[in-house]
């Protein structure tokens, strides 16, 4: 496989076929949004981890069995699954070796990090960011 600039591509599914510039541009926009959603999910899961740690520091004493079935942990688990699927989708899109789609994956990730991770960029992640 080699990187190419083709306008005809099947992306992820047989139904997602592009054959012209407008199809590629629409797909690029969708892939950028997909990359931003991936970064947003990743950041939200980190926020939930920090929130959970703060809550526990305030004196809550739960047993291990109770905390594994806590609402936050169940939500985190479901979000992990969604994030994993999105991550593999983005990887498979990159593996088309279509330069336009590869750039869209990178741009989506970078924009998503810019939009969603700005708060953590100014403080130590191990500390509480208020």
Automatic annotation (TrEMBL):
<dbReference type="GO" id="GO:0005375">
    <property type="term" value="F:copper ion transmembrane transporter activity"/>
</dbReference>
<dbReference type="InterPro" id="IPR007274">
    <property type="entry name" value="Cop_transporter"/>
</dbReference>
<keyword id="KW-1133">Transmembrane helix</keyword>
<keyword id="KW-0186">Copper</keyword>
<keyword id="KW-0472">Membrane</keyword>
<keyword id="KW-0813">Transport</keyword>
<dbReference type="Pfam" id="PF04145">
    <property type="entry name" value="Ctr"/>
</dbReference>
<feature type="transmembrane region" description="Helical">
    <location>
        <begin position="97"/>
        <end position="116"/>
    </location>
</feature>
<keyword id="KW-0812">Transmembrane</keyword>
<comment type="similarity">
    <text>Belongs to the copper transporter (Ctr) (TC 1.A.56) family. SLC31A subfamily.</text>
</comment>
<dbReference type="GO" id="GO:0016020">
    <property type="term" value="C:membrane"/>
</dbReference>
<protein>
    <recommendedName>
        <fullName>Copper transport protein</fullName>
    </recommendedName>
</protein>
<keyword id="KW-0187">Copper transport</keyword>
<keyword id="KW-0406">Ion transport</keyword>
<feature type="transmembrane region" description="Helical">
    <location>
        <begin position="16"/>
        <end position="38"/>
    </location>
</feature>
<feature type="transmembrane region" description="Helical">
    <location>
        <begin position="67"/>
        <end position="91"/>
    </location>
</feature>
